[in-house]
What does this fold into?
Amino acid sequence: MHQVASDRSDSFTLRLNIARAVVIILHLVGLIGLSLPEYRDWFLALTPVQLLSSLILLLLFHRGWNDAFPIVAAAAFWIGFGAEIIGIHTGYLFGDYVYGPTLGPKLWEVPIVIGVNWFLLIYTTGEVFRKISNDYYAAFLGACAMTAIDYIIEPVAVALDFWFWKNELIPWTNYLGWFGVSFFIHLIYRKANFEKANPLAVWLLMTLILFFTILNFTVTSS
It folds into this structure.
């Protein structure tokens, strides 16, 4: 029995290390490609593929497969996506902006993968504060983390034509809106009863933060 348990543990560790390596390689290749102007357009076209690949890798290590999880996943996707629709068509929540062609097919003028992005950020930042007992405090910290991440992403997104701001200015309302929507979804995530531990989540989040931090120097300055 002990040998079987040990073999399973070794197998899981191997799979996790492979997944971590894949995450690093995906982002490293993307980082190099996006930082080189002559290859940038080609790598930009692969942006939705990278997001979906990250989603698949993350779900491979998800443990809480019960009835609550798909509801939370759908809520994160559709609330985030719906907020973007409101933002695009009214200027409320985030400010006056439009999406470019980089992020792929759109529904109501919003790229479909934006909903995936909302889920990924909620899930990974939620993992960081998973052990905090107070749901509201954890949701507050999760929303703060997501707002800080958006602050890092915004200059890169504008430089790479993910979206465009009116008068090329990122308004403070964008960050306020991000915080509010993130807090609401984080509360749903916290209140839902499913196992939230995922050994790949924090690794993916840290890689994503490092990815956009470096792009702030290689893309926005070029």
About this structure: The first strand starts at residue 97 and ends at 99. The chain has a mean pLDDT of 92.
